[in-house]
Amino acid sequence: MGRCGECQAWGTVEEGGAPAPSAVAPAPVTSRARPITEISVESAEAVPTGVDELDRVLGGGAVPGGVVLLAGEPGVGKSTLLLEVAAMRAAEGPVLYVTGEESAGQVRLRAERLGALSDKLYLAAETSIASLVSHVDAVAPRLLIVDSVQTMVSPDTVGVPGGVTQIRQVAGALIQTAKERGIATVLVGHVTKDGSIAGPRMLEHLVDVVLHFEGERHSQLRLLRAVKNRYGPTDEIGCFELTESGIVGLPDPSGLFLTERTAPVPGTCVTVTLEGRRPLITEVQALVATSPLPAPRRATSGLDTSRVNMILAVLEKRTGMRLANMDVYASTVGGVKLTEPAVDLALAMAAASSNNDVALPTGFIAIGEVGLAGDVRTVTGVRRRVAEAQRLGFTEAVVPKHFGDPVPGIRVHEVEELSEALSRVAKRPRRARASRDED
Fold first, then answer.
1. In Å, how far are 265, 296, 297, 396, 424 from 419, measured between CA atoms?
2. Domains of the chain, residue spans
């Protein structure tokens, strides 16, 4: 550049280097560095909350000084679950429940309905983070519950409640308070329309544990998943049942996903799905009927619609089953959502069973992924799934090839093609049906 942009003179601009970064002066340390073998872990050991399903997901319980973010849709039961946890922990020490969405009287009414009353459970209706810290200093709780973090406001920060600036400031203050005083803290978080946690993404990075509470509004089943967990695994789930008297943990929830019938019915097939590391027995139902419409219906509930359409196309192309002019309805039992490929074989067998009007035998399960070529592929944890089915009394299973050693108490059939599995629901000849009816 030969000419100065300010004085318009020529040859006056000189090249200069970037300023060197200023050196950081050393400052006093809060605590000296020690070998990792000398650091005590007693203060970081998890304390059981009293709810077994919650402890399973947390990895043993709540850690003193740990901050848990619990998110879920409105009405799923977050406040109800935490109120029961607060009442159980109050038996061991003071618990502070701070609500910014309800009055203390409203929380008291819900606690009476749930039977969650305790003299050491303290309630406070506050929306100021400064007032919340004052309550913490006065009560000195072992467990702090904030419902919810989006309603809290920092008086020193400009912004509306629930805004990015306010949430960042409030979360930072709560985490600092929990770490300094060694208080196990649970923050309730709102979710957006797409199911993500409202506020900045940094909120999930700051906390130690992120839990999602899921469930259909018209179903009693509630699932608790760990998205992030610094103190335990992230592939565990907790199962709860929402009742009139509160939320009850389900150590064995498979009964919710099975229909109670005495005789087998065409169009149903049982499978085993993995929720995290937990095998759950579920039932897939299909109804195939002649369609009076030019474009047959394809309706699903609890299953992926595109996956169902793919399985129907494989059945028609690879097995010769005519479904183009048929209405097909596919559903699950108990409001559970099945999205993993291990359900493919059970769905195909349920559809074939309904189309051929042949019921699968009692005590039968099917596990496997169906490929576009009509092959049955293996899935993760097949042996664990079959062992769970055997524990619940199932006696026969169809699984992909290379299963391995047999599981005592259950007869395992290994198949490589879809046609091999569908031989269980092959269409019977008319004469055989007539003679059987006469007998």
1. 21, 25, 25, 18, 9
2. 43-251, 256-427
Torsion of CA 53, 57, 62, 67, to 10 degrees: -130
From the options 3.40.640.10, 3.40.630.10, 3.30.230.10, 3.40.50.300, give the CATH code of 256-427: 3.30.230.10
For each of the chain's 439 residues, which pLDDT tens digit applies? 577 777 888 877 777 666 666 677 888 887 889 898 888 887 778 999 989 999 999 989 999 999 999 999 998 999 999 999 999 999 999 999 999 999 999 999 999 998 999 999 999 999 999 999 999 999 999 999 999 899 999 988 888 888 889 999 999 999 999 999 999 999 999 998 888 888 888 899 999 999 999 887 777 888 899 999 998 888 888 889 888 778 888 888 877 777 776 788 999 999 999 987 888 899 999 999 999 999 999 999 999 999 999 999 999 999 989 998 999 999 998 778 899 999 999 999 999 999 999 999 989 999 999 999 999 999 999 999 999 999 989 999 999 998 888 899 999 999 999 999 998 777 654 444 444 444 4
Q: Which residues are annotated as a binding site?
A: 72-79
Backbone φ, ψ for residue 189 (5° rounding): -120, 145
For 43-251, give the CATH class: alpha beta
Could you tell me which residues are annotated as the binding site for ATP?
72-79
Q: Hey, do 43-251 and 256-427 end up sharing a CATH topology, with the first three levels equal?
A: no
Task: Name the token pair of 13.
Answer: 């601009």
